[in-house]
Amino acid sequence: MNLSRRLLILTIPGLLLLFSLTTPAQWDKKPYAEWSEKDAQKLLNDSPWAKTQSFDSPMEAFRGPVTGRVGVNSPTSPSARDASHLYFRVRFLSAKPVRQALSRQIELKQKGGMKQEMAEQLKQFASGEFLEYIVLAVTTDASDAGANVQQASALLRRDNAEFKNTTFLEIKGGKRLFLQEFQPTRPDGFGARFVFQRLVDGKPFITPESEEIHFVAPLSDTYKLDRRFKIKDMMYEGKLEY
Fold it and tell me: What percentage of the chain exceeds 90 in pLDDT?
């Protein structure tokens, strides 16, 4: 398992922001080592730290109901109802609960047959602190084989320098932090990485007062990622995780 050393900033925990906000109870009911596959998948697809954005597959959503011609169909037409859906999963890889969910998925797939060395790597990956970077990971999948998943996946595999000019995090007041580095999809299965500086002028860009994190990443004319994360919901074990 190739766990990127560059993004795994494993140090003695530094100063972390503590808040009086309450932690969403569902994520603290049991330790991550006891999460089921369903628990982990829920956190990775629909949680305070991970959102899913769906698109109708272009060729399926606009195919004529009888002739197969390209055209705009009514919402009640057969082709509109049966359109394939393409999903982009946007996750804060630098947030501890996301890394715990990914680690738990790997453990469950190993079914107890994991080597000690790999188990230690996963433990470090799940518990490490990101003190310099904010990292969002993006993967894509589809509801069925008919969706245009290959084209979407290719967007995440190529090294696109243009992303730096169009991809950003936005917080309250319209303050934007533009992408520092894009890292294409790797064999580890965690997805493409969108890397941002955590500190701006020596201070965290994201604070409790930020209220919301707005992530925008136009991958192409067809696929523009646009997800919002509520700060008050991103508490975990008494700390803000992002």
Answer: 59
The reply to whether 42 falls in a domain is yes
Distance CA 39, CA 62 (A): 35
Residue 108 has pLDDT above 70, yes or no: yes
Residue 48 lies in a domain: yes
pLDDT digits (tens, 9 = 90+) for 25-62: 466 788 999 999 999 999 999 999 999 999 986 554 44
pLDDT at 72 over 80: no
Does residue 19 belong to any structural domain of this protein? no
The domain containing residue 166 runs over which residues? Answer: 25-63+78-240
68 pLDDT higher than 50: no
Instruction: Find out whether 53 and 225 touch, Cβ atoms under 8 Å.
Output: yes
Residue 201 lies in a domain: yes
